Amino acid sequence: MLTHLKIKNYALIERLELTPNPALNIITGETGAGKSIMLGAIGLLLGNRADTKTLYNPEDKCVIEGEFNLSGFIIKSLFEEEELDYEDHCIIRREISPQGKTRAFINDTPVNLETLRRIASQLMDVHSQHDNLLLGATEYQLQIVDTFAQNDTLLEKYKLDFSNYQKAYKAYDELVIDAKNSKKEFDYNSFLLDELQKAKLKGNELEGLEAELNKLENAEDVKSKLQQSAEILSGSEQSIISLFGTTLANLNAISQYGEHFKQLRERLNSCLIEIKDISNEIEGESEQVEIDNEKIEALQVRVDTIYHLLQKHQVKKDFDLLKIQSDLEVKVGRVLNLDENLAEAKAKVEKAEKALQKSAEALSKSRLNVLSTIEAQITSLLIDLGMPNAALKVENEFIKPSPTGINVVNLLFSANKGIKPQPLKNVASGGEFSRLMLAIKYILANKRALPTIVFDEIDTGISGEVSIKVGNMMREMSKSHQIIAITHLHQIAAQGSVHYFVYKDHSSERTVSRIKELSKDERIMEIAQMIGGQNPSVAILDNAREILEKHLQEQ
């Protein structure tokens, strides 16, 4: 429940703080004093859109902060889903900067508006005239049935099965479409794949083939040049090695006459050894060079084949051809295994459909089981609320599985005898809507773990004995829920555990809205003024005192 509310720099509110009672909190005040403004501030905590025009001081930021006691309410899992720290004491804060930037925090952790709405909607339920309009929507009416039937677990299971069915059906549908397209391309892809497979590509093969082919195509010239070089080095009496040998013998003969002659001999001997080694390698290379025209032709065919494939598939590397071959194998294989894949996907759809049907029937059965009870309880309450001829009928229509189930419910209502119940949007007036919504909130109050319920002038269009019964219902609801009720009726105001008064303060240069908790005597005066105007008589004051004391004794 809400333990503390702080509003700063919002509309006519410069600064306002409120510590609500755990039971029934009454808020009254003059028209335009700021009651709806306070409700608007609470709406920001619930994730409503913000506007910089609402800033009291356009140069300062607006801060709306609510503190909540969550003990006793099963909501921890929701915090875990949103990856938020959970504590029994929760603080929700909304800020609006002068530049129009808004920020939201839950326990000082920044959150987006969707997360804020998801958490806050489990902490507070604000009923306003907007809810009267919302009541005419079939989606909202279905929510009423689910809340009354306490279908949270069944609805969660159905939504999971519905999501699984959609995923399975989408996968199957995509496979069917893919199959049609693949069959059209199958023959062409098979031809391309066969061509690539017959080529027996190895990847990065082309470079080596071209080098080997270049060598073979010039083999005759290479062999001739190697043989000439070998002849020059060692093939005759005037060869380089022979001349080196003669020169070495001369230096060896004179080496005894000087040390430097010995050094020249050694250097020349080293050169001779190296030249002999080179000569041997040249002769070996010459013997290995083959002139093989058949091999040249085979290599040329292989190179031409690879170049043809490169040009055909518009790639530059033979490695890319292997990638294309792999992709074609997948495409062709998919078509070859198409019947098996389609059968498997269809089986998954059928399995998901059976699970969906089972959970849909369970959810639908739970809904149908409570329709007559809802009709009876609400009709009984409407009679107590001064509508003796009221009749409510909840119609059910079966539909194909949708995100919310296989049911569409429609609340049909009639306030007058002899008039057949019609859809709410066609028959209910504002006052009738308010009483109907109160009856709905009342029967749902103990079905949902909702800490705080706010009623914004739900007493519109009622008076007298009916208003007393409305107050009784609110007081009854406050035994298990914190209730905050904005009202203009003294019969309801007198039943509050505490009474707050909203007023305009004109003492400064600018008017501001303020709120204060009324003492017993102040409550008597406020109730008396609600009965008889600004200057109530002694009799009216006594009446107000009697009404208040009676309700205080009952609490």
Automatic annotation (TrEMBL):
The keyword Coiled coil applies. Residues 199-229, 335-369 form a coiled coil. Residues 2-506 form the RecF/RecN/SMC N-terminal domain. Keywords: ATP-binding, Coiled coil, DNA damage, DNA repair, Nucleotide-binding. It comes from the Bacteria. Belongs to the RecN family. May be involved in recombinational repair of damaged DNA. This is DNA repair protein RecN. It comes from Flectobacillus roseus. The lineage of its organism: Bacteria, Pseudomonadati, Bacteroidota, Cytophagia, Cytophagales.
